[in-house]
Design a protein that fits this description.
It comes from Cupriavidus plantarum. This is Fe2OG dioxygenase domain-containing protein. Belongs to the iron/ascorbate-dependent oxidoreductase family. The chain is an alpha+beta fold and 273 residues long. It has one domain: q2cbj1_9rhob like domain (Jelly Rolls). The protein is 32% helix and 25% strand. Strands 1, 2, 3, 4, 5, 6, 7, 8, 9, 10, 11 and 12 form a twelve-stranded antiparallel sheet that branches. The longest helix has 16 residues. The radius of gyration is 18 Å and the shape is globular. The N terminus and C terminus are likely disordered. The structure holds 2-oxoglutaric acid and fe (ii) ion. The site of 2-oxoglutaric acid has 8 residues, from strand 11.
Length: 273
């Protein structure tokens, strides 16, 4: 069956999200899935949570089971494309960049651009959001924690863009003891720091302003396996050239490798931005 033929008709949006079995029903689009799931949430209350928690939100259930199952399958399929990094004292683990996702997992690229998803994120953040430019290898990416000690130390997801940068994390696979530890309000001198810790189960969501949430992923133990998917959205996609260089160097060293990050610049500069 072609992708086109598998697309759900608009009427599928109204099907009860819990209906089983799924095999008999045509696969829906990521956009329709998100529209259905977010329509069932108490979005006014969630927006209040996001604000009260200093631009942070955690939902243990967000993505529809079908879409989550797709992500799990794709995360396993993309394992041969993992780029591993080791930065003593800061980070150890694997990543798959948006460029590799574009080539091998268009479902994820489609989910990233889902109008329903972006609309819901705008509702939560109170900002107009844009997708990251095509040259940003971090726009959407998979993180893999597959070996003992894989982790990322305390950090912010600093925005090198002219505007704010929001991080959305989706749990994909979590056969691990890894936790997302975080501290709220660290950049707000009028509020006491508030520590917290969550695991992100498959289909669970974390959303935050990258410059506001201090966070880390605790080290994986032997024989554990964790995959999370990150989506980044910005309020202004402009970036000063020297910050672009810093951002690219960080992505090359800490995440995706120099080939992934600089290949567009090296292959004739067609997409130079
Ligand atoms: O693996 C995760 O869930 C988040 C990783 C992270 O915080 C990062 O790479 O900036
Ligand atoms: Fe982070």
């Amino acid at each position: 069956m072609t992708d086109q033929a598998m697309r759900a008709s608009a009427s599928d949006v109204t099907l009860p999200g819990t209906s089983q079995p799924h095999a008999a029903r045509a696969a829906s689009t990521p956009d329709a899935d998100v529209a259905r799931e977010t329509a069932a949430l108490d979005n006014a209350a969630l927006r209040e949570d996001f604000v009260r928690q200093g631009a942070f939100l955690y939902l243990d259930k967000f993505l529809a089971p079908d879409a989550t199952a797709q992500l799990i399958r794709l995360a396993r399929e993309l394992q041969p494309h993992i780029n591993r990094n080791y930065l003593p004292g800061h980070k150890q683990g694997g990543s798959v960049s948006r460029h590799t996702i574009d080539e091998h997992a268009p479902f994820i690229a489609e989910l990233y651009r889902s109008k329903a998803l972006i609309g819901w994120l705008e509702q939560m953040t109170g900002d107009r959001l844009q997708v990251c430019p095509a040259t940003d290898p971090h726009a959407y990416a998979l993180y893999y924690y597959t070996r003992e000690g894989d982790h990322i130390g305390w950090h912010y997801d600093t925005s090198y863009y002219d505007g704010r940068r929001y991080t959305m994390l989706l749990g994909v696979i979590d056969e691990s003891s890894c936790r997302l530890d975080y501290e709220l309000h660290t950049r707000d001198k009028d509020r006491a720091d508030e520590p917290g810790s969550v695991a992100i189960p498959p289909g669970g969501l974390v959303l935050f302003d990258g410059d506001k949430l201090r966070h880390r992923i605790t080290p994986a133990r032997a024989n554990e396996f964790r995959v999370s998917l990150t989506f980044e959205y910005v309020t202004d996609p402009g970036m000063r050239p020297w910050l672009r260089l810093i951002s690219n160097m960080k992505d090359a060293v800490a995440y995706f490798g120099f080939r992934q990050v600089f290949r567009r610049l090296l292959s004739g500069g067609k997409n130079r931005a």
